[in-house]
Amino acid sequence: MNRPIEHDAPLLRRGKLVKPGEGVSIWWMGDDRITFAAVSEDTGSEYAFWLDCPPAGTGPPRHVHSREEEGFFLLRGKIELKAGGINTTVGDGTFFAAPCGIAHEWRNVGDESAELITFTTPGGNEGFFLELGAPGDEPPGKRGTMPVQEINARTPRYGVTYLEGTADGHERPLPMSEGRGPTLVLPDEGDRRYAAGVTYNIKAAGLATAAAYTVTEITIEPGGEMPAHRHARYEEALYVMEGTAEVFLDGEEYEASAGTVVVVPWGVHHRVRNRTGQPVRLFDLTVPGGIEEYYRSACRPSPGPAGDPAGDLNRLRATGRQFGIEVDRTGEFS
Question: What CA–CA distances, in Å, run from 138 to 25, 30, 61, 135?
Answer without folding.
Answer: 10, 11, 25, 6
